[in-house]
Amino acid sequence: MSEKILLMSDIHITEAGVDIFGLSPADRFRLCLEDAIEHHADARHLFLMGDLTEHGYHDEYQILEEMLKRQPFEFTLMLGNHDRRSMFLKAFPNLIEGFQQGSKKFGKTTILYLDTLDEDAKNLHGGLLCQERLRWLETNLSSGSTQILILAHHHMLTSGFDALDEINLLNGRPVAELIAASGCCQMVISGHVHRTLVSTFRGVTHTMIKSPCHQMPMVLGSGGLYPSVSEPGGYGVLLLDGEIPILHHVDVGYQLDILNKAS
Is this structure's pTM higher than 0.85? Predict the structure, then answer.
């Protein structure tokens, strides 16, 4: 029997009354939570994979904290480039200070979740795994588990969106090399790009999920960051049976005409 895990990335909660490109991040996040509660109430866990807030303000984290109180899933919070450690820990004081990384076991599968936030990044919004975090990852990859999945906010490989690839995980290629060489990782899942993508690197699947709020326009190649578009938000549903991981993506906020027509 499969274990079901929910994945949401790039929530971007703002202060009350503040929209992003005409969208309310809190309302969009609420829609995704409601959809998950209705259709995936049997999920074991919810990972929020970074960019929890838009600016890292304490008020924004407080809004998120109140929203999480009103949903039923056990959850893990990760950090992205829009987050700030001090304000995050002020709002969630029960968490251990330091890097928000860890390991969780679901059946025969181990999920490693990484902390890629680099608040001193020269390329603003880029991510990094420092030597301490790299050692932690290497130790956990050599733990003996043969079924490992990795969650990270920043993507490690290129996406085809040049501006976003300039602010990916700064040492993403060496990290991807380390992961592939371990021989035990089945899939790496990230956010950051606000788009659904799939690629492979040396036998390891690398995939990205959309944001519950705003999405990256499908404009590939060079140029700056384009204004986000109000396509449906979404989240990931991960099925783990200890052998074959399956990642579904759920779009939220639209209705299929066929569902509204009489058969």
Answer: yes
